[in-house]
Amino acid sequence: MERIYIFLALFSFVFFLEAIGGSYINSAVQNIERQFQMSSRTSGFMISASDFGYIPCVVFIAHFGSKGNRARWIGAGAILVSITYLMLASPNFLFPQGHHDINTTAVAAQLKPTAGQLSPNSTLRELLSYQLIRDRMPHDTYRSLMNLEDETTPIEKYNITGKNPNPTNGIAAVPINNAYTIDGWLIDEALIAANDVLANGTSQNTLRSSLSLFINRRANTSDKDIKKLRISAAAPFTFCGKLTNSLRAIIKNSKCEEQSSNAYPFMVFFFSLLLLGIGRTVPWSLGVPLLDDNIKKKSLPAYFGAISSIRVLGPICGYMIGSFCNKFYYTLHPPNGLTPADPTWIGAWWMGFLFIGTIALFPSTALFFFPQGKQGSSSSVQLHDVHKEKLKKTEEDDRTLRTKLKDFGRSVKTVLSTKIYLGSVLGRVCDILAFKGYIVFLPKYLENHFGIPQYLVHRYMAMFGVFGFGLGAATGGYITQKLKLNGRRAAMFVMLMSTVNVCLYSAKIFIGCDSIVNSIGLNNRDTNYNFTRSCNSECMCENARLYPVCDSQGYAYFSPCHAGCREAKQYGSDPILDFTSCECVKGGVVSKKFCENTCKTSTVVFFLTVLPGSFVAGLGVVPAMLILLRSVPPESRSLSLGLQGMAVSLFGTLPSPIIWGLVIDAACLVWDKTCNGARGACSIYHPDRLRIWMHLLYVVIRMVALITDIYVWKHAKHLNIMDEPASEEKDNIRRNSIKMQAVQPDP
């Protein structure tokens, strides 16, 4: 096998892994936001950190790296990228969200019964004043019982014969998990007795004896009860109960004292992405000219199409890895009641970075030590820029730094004086400005707008979006070579693809839907998104996190606490819980199983536009790349790619996530709060604003790119991208003759 093919395989594999990492970062953004309570504006700025490293380095590395061993430069950059992926996983371990030591003295004091409550002559009012009983008693029932006249007869011993301390759901005899309730069966018996007292005016004996037994059982089980309360307080859902929710507030304050902000994780992410930007400057700006020096020009469209397709397979694998990792909870031990389908699920984003960083080290090291081969042999690879080598022969080797800088300035001026190059670069800047931020926050949009779980979002993006783009890139390379698109014909092809892309994305503005999360916001527009009602005003729901549940009619609530639910019931190991004794709900029961997704049709229509849209976008990649590469003198190719990379990063990838983050945050209706009371992550968005603003911004930017494509077409009349230049044709003839001599036997 010829050495160039080995290099091509290693180079393609490195490109492949780099593309995996790029798309995987997009799949991890929302999980990072939730774990470290970052807004989209903050995460967008964080993602742009790689461009802060890329921009000041790419031009100098492209210019000076092209004068050395380009394989070694590419390998060094790829090794740095591998290390940064490992660094990106570190905040999960440096800033763990683990067990917190808290002061439970105040809670224990409320759990300790008073002497009057333990007395055999306790009145109904004294028994009802016990906080755990008060928390489980519906407000109307509690108020009616407090208005009754107390009975002063001695409390009889409560007969538990025939009672079931381990109840079932009554349907399939599945036992109820009592992890979130303290003697819930006994309170249920007391509630039945209370209803009998209020409805039929019967004696209070049974009610008082059941409540007295409940309180007396608390006298010697304080530690056990606090443990159960802590499980409830640490659960992903919140239900109505002052004692549990006060403990939740204590836990939150304890976390805030240990880590007052997300500044430290942000700094680690930012520095890691900064190094990632430096590392990724090398492969594109040096690798493409290296291949151009070793492959015939007529074969370049096919090779570039193949490389583009291989590199596009990277995002497919990146999103599939993201889909796999998002099925695991970030602590690897998900709490009861939380599944990957929940909008508050935090996937194990750090696993993918560890995997990608470890795998990428091997081909990167192989590239760094890649041998050139014997000079002049048929198997040698031209690792040094042949055009730079020719220039060196006509110049003195002992040039001063000032002379080198002047030479650099002249090269930059030559590149920037090319109209086709400037128009092509401006078009690609607009493409990236529109695409980068859109693709970073597309998973968030799909999850919030259509109610698609994260792990399915990334799978769909790989199946429809990235696959379509890769297929389009390969097809575009084949069409360019088969039809011999040259000059204006290639520019016209790129322009037509941009037009179709704008039309397809314009159609997405009208594909809308109200998911379960969106309906929560729409249901509370009249109250300015204040979820507190008279039925839940005493539940202490201030610290409740988003946990959508619905009643039997499908009406959605922000959390079980806001539905006024006082008990959580889990049947066996079923992760979907029922929440009962809900004062704000007719029927008194809410659950996730009552929430019906009505966005299936809209989801199908949306992804039917994604596949052709991504395919069309991919069709224009190869001809656009060849136009850019052939619009400058051969000796300036590396510099031109470096300048293009700097322009794309400075005006495209750097501001794009920040701009999109601002647009997305502007559509937020309900914010989580951080420790200092500032805005954290967004819980609920305005569906119409989010949909229209995202796609309208994309379409406007792409229309500007379309204008630049028209400009390139106007000036591309004499552009030659398919035929061999005379000097390079001679070099190829010489190399082929050497190869033929190497395979001929001696006479």
Automatic annotation (TrEMBL):
It is a multi-pass membrane protein. The chain crosses the membrane at residues 45-66, 73-95, 263-282, 303-329, 349-370, 420-440, 460-479, 604-629, 641-663, 692-713. It comes from Caenorhabditis remanei (Caenorhabditis vulgaris). The keyword Amino-acid biosynthesis does not apply. The keyword Transport applies. Residues 529-583 form the Kazal-like domain. Keywords: Cell membrane, Disulfide bond, Ion transport, Membrane, Signal, Transmembrane, Transmembrane helix, Transport. It is found in: Cell membrane. Belongs to the organo anion transporter (TC 2.A.60) family. This is Solute carrier organic anion transporter family member.
